[in-house]
C-alpha cells in the first residue's frame, strides 16, 4: 500500500504541475500587454502568430495527456500486481505470479500530427498501367508464337518509314558478372582485364565505334593497374562519346533480396569512384541480368539524377502483353507518388535474352547470323544451324536487307521510329579478334544501309544515352520527360519466368546463411559509418584531428566495397558456384552497430560464472536474468551462461503441441488463432527440377514429420520467457521480452535450420491464422516500400512466391499480422489467413540456367523473425483495395530493432584497472520518429584512403499507416510534418555546411543557411553534404 500511495501522490503532483503550467501559458497569451491590439482587428501576421501558438498549445496538451495516461497506466499496473518486494530488490515476483521490474520514471508519449497520417490514405497520381491489374488481366498461357516463340507474328507495311526513316542504334556491351561460375578475381584475370585493354585500342581505331560498361568493381580494379596512357585514352573516349558508363554502380545489383541501404551504398561507391577518377556522371541505367525488377530501383536512379533506364528479365507473358500494346517504353512511377515527381523513362527489352540472337529482332535464327563471334571456326556456334557469314561485296545487299527486316519488325513494338539493338553477351569482346569481327562487319552493313536512301534507315553504333537522346529528340522534349501518349506504369516485375512454368522464385531463399550474414554486416557497416563520421567530427571540434587514426578510413572503404560486391545479382541471390560463395564470405569485415532511436531493450552477454552484477556508469544496479547455455537439447553447459539485462510483456502465448496456438495482446479482448506448421516441398520427378534459381515443386507441401516427439524446453524469467522445441532438422525458439516499449510488443522467433542430410527438399514455415485476409497479402520491396500481392489460382504454386527482404503481412478489418525478418527469404500466402516462408533449400542438381551445379553447400542457419500483432481501427478498411500500403510506426520500429541489434563489445582493462566508461550521446535531440537515418557516410578525399572534411547525411522519411492502434513505444515519438533542423541535431558540433545533394552526391544544389530547416515528403530519400566541426 505504501508503494501504491507514493506512486499515486507522485502522479497527482505531476498532473497538477502540468495543468498549472498550461494555465500560466494561457494566462500569458491572454494578458501580455505586448500582445494586445488597440483595435478589434488583428493584422494578418498577428493572426498567423496566434494560430501557431494555438497549434503549439494543442500539441503540448496532447503530450501532457499522453504523459498522464502513461502515469495512470503505470499506477494501475502496480496496483493490479499487489507488488511488494519482500526484500526491497527488483525484479521480484508479485502475489499473482507476474514479474515486477524497476519502475521506469520516464513517461513516454506519442504525438503524430494528423497531417502526417494523411499520406497513407490520400489520392495517388494516376497510372495508366498498374501491374496488379495486368496480373488480373492476363491468362498467363503460352501459345506458340512462331519464330518469336513467346510472342506473335509481326508485320509491317514497306512504306511506313518513307517520311521518317528508322534510326537504329547498335549498342555493343559486355556483361561482366563480379563472381558467378568463377570468382571475381578469376574473371578479372581470365577475361575482364583483356576486354578493357582491347577496348582502349579498338575504340581508338575508328571514332564511329561505341561501347558501354556497367560494373565499377571491375573497372576500378583495371584502372589501378592501367598505366597513365591507358587512363588518358579512357578519358578521351568518354569525352568523345565513344565510351559510356551506364548505371555506374559498384555492381549490377540484384533487385529482389537486397536492402535499399545496400542498393544505395553500392551506387554511391561506384558514383564516387567515377567522380574522383573520371569526373563523369552517369545518365542512363542498364539492368539486363537481375532476375526480375523492383520498383525501388527506378526511384533510386531518379534520386541520383539519372534520366532513363533499361530492364530485361521480365515474365514472358508480360513482355508479350506490353509488346502487343506498344507499352514496352513507359514512365515508371512509384505507386505512392501523389504527382509525377518520381517518374523515370524506362525501356523494356522485348525478347527472351540480352544475347545477340534475341536482340536484333523477333527471329533468333536470323539474329544469330549477325553475331560475328559465331563465325565458322570459332568456339561457339548458332544452335539454329545457320552460321553467320562474313560481310563481303557479293552478299552485302542480301545481308543488309535481311537484318533490316528484323530491325523493322522489332521497331513495330515501340512507339517511336528510333530503335535500340544491344550487341553483346556475357564476357564478350575479350579477344581482339571479336572486336574486329563485330565492328568491321557491322560497319559495312551500316555503310550500305546509310548509302541506300530507298531503305529509309540510318544505322550506327551508339551508346545507351545516344539512343535515349534520339527518342527525346524525335518527340521534341527535354531529356527524361514523358513523350506524348506514352503510358505511366506503377508496380514491380516479380516473379520472373523465362519460359513455360519456370519461375525464378527459388533464389529468394537460396543459401540463406549468406543472406543473413549480408544483413548483419550491412548493419555493422552502417554503424561504423555513423560512428566514424561523428568521431572524426568530434576530434576536429576538440582540435585533436592530428591524433585521430584517419588511416582506419581505408578499412571502411574496403568494407563498403565488400558489401557492395555481395549485392551483385549472382551473390546475394545464392546463385554462384560454391567456391565463389566462399570467396564472397571471406571479404566481410565485422565492425559495430549503433542505435538510431532511444530504446529500451535486452542485451545478451555470455559469462563463465553465475555470480553476475551489472552496473550503470553511475553505479546503479541493472536487473539481469541469468540463463543456461545448452550444449544439446537437454544438456546444460556448466561453463557458459547467458546474461540478459534490462527488459516487459505486452503479449501472451499458449504453447500447444507445435508452437503458438494463439496470440493475444494484453489490452485486446480478441484473440487471434495462430498455428505454426512446418512443411516440406520436394522437386518434380520430370526432367526440369528445382535448382539455385528455379522453384519447381512436386505439388503442394507436405507436413514435416519425425518419428520421435520433439524435445521441448521452457525457460521463464523476469526479463524474457521462451519455449524451445528441438526437431531433427530445426530448432524453434519462441521468446517474449518483458520490456516496456517496442521490444516487448512482438514475439521473437528464431529457427535454427540444418537440412544437410536431406535430398531435394525445401523446408517451409507456415503461419495459419483466423485472419480473414482472402487472396491479398503484402510484401516489402527492398525494405523500402510495401507492395500488395494477390494469390492467383490460375498461376502455378511457385509463381505465387515473392521476395521478402524485411516483412510481409496479412490483415482483415480487425487485425494486421506482420512477420518481420532479419534476412531475405521467399514468402507467399497460399490460403486466406496464411503466411508461408521458405527457410532453406537443398537441391542436388543444376536447373539449366548456366550455374552447372545444385545447392549442396548448406550451412546450419539461424533465421530470425519478429511476429507483430496489431489491432486496426475502424476507419482503416478503405485502404485494403488500394495499390499502396504502409507499415505502422510500431512496425517500422520493430524492423529497426530486429535489423540493428545492440552489440555488446568487450573492453579490455588497462594495467591500473578498468577505464571509466562514459555515455557517448552525439544527438542533441531525437529525430522525428518518421525519419530514418539511413547513413552518415564520410566522403572520400582525392586520396581514396582518407576522408574529406565532408559527411553525407542520408535521410528517409517513412510512410505511416496511422490506422493501427499504437502502444507505449518506450520512447517519445513525435512527428513534425517532415521538418528537421539539422544544426540542432548534433551535440557539441558546429554545422559549417548544409548542402542538398543528389542521392549519390554527384549533383549539388545551392547550400542552405546553416540554421535552415530541411523538409522531406513522406517516402522521400534525400542526401545532404555536411561539414561538421
UniProtKB/TrEMBL annotation:
Every Glycoside hydrolase family 38 central domain range: 502-588
Pfam families: Alpha-mann_mid, Glyco_hydro_38C, Glyco_hydro_38N
Membrane association type: Single-pass type II membrane protein
GO BP, one annotated term: mannose metabolic process
Pathway: Protein modification; protein glycosylation
GO cellular component: Golgi membrane
Protein EC: 3.2.1.114
Cofactor: Zn(2+)
Keywords noted in UniProt: Disulfide bond, Glycosidase, Golgi apparatus, Hydrolase, Membrane, Metal-binding, Signal-anchor, Transmembrane, Transmembrane helix, Zinc
Family: Belongs to the glycosyl hydrolase 38 family.
Protein name per Swiss-Prot or TrEMBL: mannosyl-oligosaccharide 1,3-1,6-alpha-mannosidase
Annotated gene: man2a2
